[in-house]
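Input for the complex:
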Amino acid sequence: MMRRYFKLYLAYVRNCFVRLLDYRGEFYMQIFAWTMWTGLSLLFLYVVFAQVGELRGVTGERWTREDMIILNGTFAILESLLHALVVPNLGRLSEQIRHGTLDLVLTKPASAQFQVSARYVHFGGVFNFLLGCVIVGVGLKMRGGGVTWQGAAIYVYLVLCGFLIAYALWFLSVTLAFWFVRLDNIGWLFDPILRIARFPMDIYPGQLKFIFTTVVPLGFLTTVPVQTLLGRAPLTVMATATGIAAALLYLSNAFWKFALRRYESASS
Amino acid sequence: MRLRKYATILNICWQDVLQYRGNAMGWTLFDVLPSLTMILVWMAAYRTRDHIGGLNLQEMVTYYLAMTLLAVCITPHGEWDISMSIRQGLISQHLVRPIDYFLLQSLQQTAWQIMKGGLFLPGFALIAFLFRDFAQFPSLTVGGWLAFALSCGLTYLLFLELKFLLGISAFWVGSAGGFIEVWYMLMLVFSGQFVPLTVMPDVIQRLGEFLPFRYLYYFPLMILLGKAAGDAVLRGLLTQAVWVGTMFIAVRLTWRAGVRAYEGFGG
Amino acid sequence: MPAISVHHLRKIYRTHVKEPGLWGSVKGLVRRHYLTKEAVADISFEIQPGEFVGFLGPNGAGKTTTLKILSGVLHPTSGEVRVLGHIPWKREPAFQRQMSLVMGQKNQLWWDLPAYESFVLNREIYEVPPKQFHAKLEELVELFGVRDLLHVQVRKLSLGERMKCELIASLLHSPLVLFLDEPTIGLDVVSQKRIREFLKEYNRRTHITILLTSHYMEDVKELCERVIIINFGRIVYDGALAHLVERYADQKRLTITFAEAINHQDFSRFGKELARSEFSVTIETPRAAATHVASEILRTYNVADIAIEEVEAEEVIREIFASGEAGTEP
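Predicted:
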C-alpha cells in the first residue's frame, strides 16, 4: 500500500521534472521572488532591531534578534515545503471542480485526496529551503550556546508536524471550494493566514493567542519548534504536536469525504 | 455623448463586478491581514520603547489602520487581468473597438474599488473598534483633510497608471508572474506599506526619493498623521501630480509601443 | 450476466435560485429559493458484454449525468445500477480498474508533457505490470498510428491527435467497460471519422463494452448497432438504429420529375408538398399509401423519373427531440 503510493508519487515527481525543463525562465524567476520574500522579512527584522533590543510579547516573553532570526528561518523552511509540495496542488483544486476535471480523478483507483494533494511538485522550493536552514544556522551561531543532536532532532520532528498541520489546515480551507465554486482565490485564502506564523504567538493578544494555539493551531508551525530548540518549551509539546497533526489530518480527510458526498449528489 | 458611453460602461462593469463579491472579500483579506499583523509586531516592540523612527505607538497603529483602508479602497489590481488578456490574445478584441483600453481598464477597476470599499467598511469599523485604545483619530484642519483627500485621489490615479504599465509588460515579458511579484516587493518596501519609511535604513529612504512609490501610501499617510505640514504638503502634492503626469505619458508611449510589438508578432 | 444494468435510475438536482443584485444575495442568506431539476427521470436498460451502444439526446437530456452515475462520479437519487457487478458510486478500486471514462472536453493528459509521461502515470495509478503495459501500449500505438506523437508535448498536438492519446491513456489498463462522453466534440470531419474507425476496430478486437454519448448523429450511425435515445431524462427509444426509421417515420418521400413543365398543378390530394421546381415536385405521403400514390401519379402524368425515399434517421431523431420539447417537459 505505502509502497504503491510511493511509486505513484515518484511518477508524479518525474512528470514535474520533465515539465520543468520547459519553463526554466519562470522557474528561476519564481526562485528569485521567493528568495526576495525571505530577504524582505530579514530586512524587517533589521529595521525593528535597529530600534529596539527585543520584542516583548503580551505575557512578557522576550524574543531577541537572534531568536527572531531563527524563527524567520524556520518559517522560510516551512513555507518552502508548502510552496514546493502543497500550494501547486491545492491552488488548482477549485479550478478542477469548476472545470469538472475532478470527475476524472474520482474514476481512478487511488485515493482522491492523495491525487489532488500530491500531483504537482515545484522544485524551486529547494533553494528557499536551504536558505531557511542557513538562516536558522546563522541565528544559532549568533546566539551562541550549542544545540544538542537530540534537540535538533526534536526540532526537525516538530517542524515536520508543523508542515503536516499547515497542509491539513490548507486542505480544509480549500475543500470549502465545493461550496463556494465561484471563489477562484480560495486556493490561496490560507496564505495570508499562514503568514501570521512568521511572528511569535506571544505577540498576539489573549483571545487571538488562544485561537492560534487551539482552534487554528498556527503556533505549532514555527513558534513551538523554535521555543523547543531554544530550550524554552517542555518536551511534552512533542506529544501535543503529534496529536494535533494526526487529528487535523483525520479531520481534513473526513471533511473531504463529506464534501465529495455532497458533490456526488449535487453537482451536474 | 462620450460621457454617456463611459457612464454606460461603468454601469456594466459594476454589474459584472458584483458577480465577484465573494472573490473581492478574499482579496481584501490579502490586503488587510499583513497590516494587522504588523500592528501587533510593533506593539511588541513598543513595550520596550516609546518612540520609534519619530513615531509613538498611537501614531504607528493609526498609520497601519489607515493603510488597510488605502490598501483596500484606492489600490486597483488590474495587472493580472491585463497581462492575462495579452498573453491569451484576448487583447485583440480591445484593439478593434473604438474605445481606449486604459480608460476601460480604469473604469473597470473603479467599479471594483467601489465594491471592495463598500464590503470592507463594516470590517474596518470592527478593526478600528478593536484597536480604539491604541489609535488616535487624526486631528487635522479642514485644509489638512482637503490635502489628504487630494493626495489620495492622486494616489489612485498613479496606481491606475503604474498597474497598467505593469500589466502591459506582458507584451514583452513572457511570464508575468515573477515580474509582477518583484515589482510588488519594490512597491511594498518603497511605498511604506511594509514599514513607515522613517524607520527604514537611510539608504532605502534616499533611494526612495527617486521612485514614485513613496507617493502611493507614505505621503498621504504622513499628511494624515500631521507629520507633513505647510510647504512640505504643497511640495509633496506637486511632486505627486508631476509623477501622475509623467506616468500618464509613459502609459501612452508604452501602450503604443506594446501594440506595435504585438501586431508585429501578429498575435 | 449483462455488463451494465440500470433499473429505474433517477437523479434530481436541487439548486438554489439567486435573485440578481446585492440585495438579492442578502435575501438569499435568509431564505433560499430552491429549484429541483430532474436530470434523469426514470431510466432502465441493460447492456451485454461487447456491445457498442450509442446514447443519443440533445443537450441537457441527461446523457452525461447518466454516464457520470455509471462511472461512479455521481450518486443517483434512486434506482439500481450494476456495472460489471459493482455499484459504481462505491468507487471500489476493483471496479475502477476495470473501467474508464473519457470526456471529450476534459483531458487527463498533462498539457505540458509528452503523452507518454501521462501513460506512465496511469500505469502507476492502475498498477499495470510493466510487461503488460508495454504490450498494450504497443498494440494501441499501432492501432491508432500515433508512434511519432508519443514524445511530443500534448499542447503541440492537434485536437484529433490529442483525443487519440486520451483514448490510449484510458485503455492502457485494458478496461472491460469504456464510457465515452462526446469523444468527437470539436473535431473536424476527418478526425471524427478516424476516431470512429479506431473505436470500432478496438471494440471488434477486444469485445470491450462501450457506451458512447454524442449529439453527432454520424458517431452513432457508424458505430452503434444499438442506440438509446434519451430526452428529458427518459428513454424515448432503445433498439437498432435501422428499426428506428421504420418505427417512427410513418411517411415516405416521393420525388417526381416530369417530362413537361408542371405549371400550377395541384398535388395536394397525394400528400404534403415539400418542394417544387419547374419540372419536379417532392411530396410526403403516408408509408402505407406510398406505392399506391406512385402508381397513381405514373398513370396520370407524363413522368420522366420517380424516386421513393425513406426519411433520414437524423431527421427522425430531430423530430423526436422537437416533439419531446413541446410535449413532455414538466
